[in-house]
Design goal:
The chain is of the alpha+beta class and about 400 residues long. Helices cover about 60% and strands about 10% of the residues. The strands form three sheets. The chain has a four-stranded mixed sheet.
């Protein structure tokens, strides 16, 4: 174990079998993860059924199933992953400021008509290829193992993946087998990324597939090191979300009155809405679902990836806490938080429908997901243990 950029990288032995709360090991197929992939794929296909865009409530089950499946897959894979980059408390507290600067920077670039299309396409082509490869390799390698596939040859991947022997020394080489499933996944991931970035027109299903790949990959590779960090991160980003959705429009109105120019006024009521709906950011940074509305200039309902990734970090941490607490596979905290996440999406969409305006989803997701963890802790008399829970070594994986 070593510190890296003030975060913490956790490692397990290359030969160790990591047991989850559900009793699976890394060398055993996670059949529930395969089932979640099936739900995700089925939902993507169902979203193309004719007539759905005309049904007002269609985006709710569509987004809920996609987001919940992605969080489930990422959390489960993160539990058995050998390399997990942990977000520290300081990093979590700084996240709202860093994201605010980034968001406003993109907004200014958009307003000043600075073309970044080539850079964005190149960046997301690489990101989508990598995240697609990571995500597709999981189910394909499971299926390949069930079919008894053999590697053509192996290469030393220790330059990319750290390994440790039983004494904690980084000395055992990590071997990557070049299997038919790996070659297939590489070709499919690159092809899908190329179609999404450089293909004719925008396909919302392909966009959503790539967005889910990004979510599952990040949740597999990234985590928070404690419940305190998760609460600090989610609370900070809740205020970030609320300000840039509800407060940024008013703040820029005041600025425009002082500067006597309307150049920086948001067209859709807020900085967040302008950036999300901008054709300049035609990238899988959100889930989309078409809507039949003649009046609307933006023809999609949307759910930002931050509204999936941020609560997903807490859900993944609670799965780790379940793993530490239980050997019976109850996963009480994990299941409760995942259910609370779905309920939060319902509350967000209901508020948006009733108010007729876009809502900061974290306003509903954060209290419900954090609240569900606290409620379970109170019911089991484990609040203090949950609050003090911190991932410090590989045994806590």
């Amino acid at each position: 174990m070593r510190d890296l950029r003030k975060g913490r990288r956790l490692k397990s032995s290359a030969k160790e079998e990591v047991t989850t709360a559900g009793g699976e090991t890394e060398k055993q197929p996670q059949l529930d993860v395969l089932a979640a992939y099936g739900v995700l794929g089925g939902t993507l296909l169902a979203g193309n059924l004719p007539g759905l865009p005309g049904i007002v409530a269609s985006p709710l089950p569509y987004f809920t199933l996609l987001a919940s499946s992605a969080v489930y897959i990422g959390s489960k894979r993160g539990l058995v992953n050998k390399q997990v980059e942990m977000i520290s408390l300081k990093q979590g507290a700084a996240a709202p400021v860093i994201l605010s600067v980034s968001l406003f920077g993109v907004y200014l670039i958009q307003k000043l008509d600075i073309s970044l299309e080539t850079f964005i396409n190149g960046y997301f082509f690489l990101l989508e290829s990598l995240s697609g490869g990571f995500s597709l390799f999981v189910p394909c390698s499971m299926i390949g193992a069930m079919m008894g596939e053999k590697a053509f040859f192996s290469i030393d991947s220790s330059w990319l993946v750290e390994s440790a022997n039983d004494n904690g020394d980084d000395s055992e080489p990590e071997q990557l087998g070049i299997t038919p499933s790996l070659l297939l996944v590489t070709c499919v991931a690159v092809t899908l990324a190329a179609f999404d970035r450089f293909g004719p027109g925008e396909n919302f299903t392909l966009n959503n597939l790539e967005a889910c790949f990004i979510v599952t990959t990040w949740l597999e590779l990234l985590g928070v090191n404690s419940f305190r960090t998760a609460v600090a991160l989610l609370s900070g980003l809740l205020f970030y979300d609320v300000f840039w959705v509800f407060g940024s429009g008013e703040a820029l109105k005041v600025l425009s009155q002082l500067s006597k120019t309307n150049a920086f006024l948001p067209e859709n009521g807020s900085v967040m809405a302008d950036v999300a709906m901008s054709p300049m950011i035609a990238a899988p940074t959100k889930l989309l679902f078409p809507r039949d509305s003649i009046e609307a200039s933006f023809k999609f309902s949307l759910l930002g990836l931050g509204d999936i990734l941020v609560p997903g970090l807490l859900v993944g941490l609670l799965l780790r806490f379940d793993s530490k607490k239980n050997d019976s596979g109850e996963q009480t905290y994990f299941k409760s938080s995942l259910g609370a996440y779905g309920l939060g999406l319902c509350a967000s969409f209901a508020a948006s429908f009733l108010s007729g305006t876009g809502q900061p989803a974290l306003l509903y997701l954060v209290p419900l997901t954090v609240g569900s963890a606290v409620a379970v802790g109170l019911q089991r008399a484990e609040v203090k243990e949950l609050w003090n829970f911190k991932i410090q070594d590989k045994q806590q994986l």
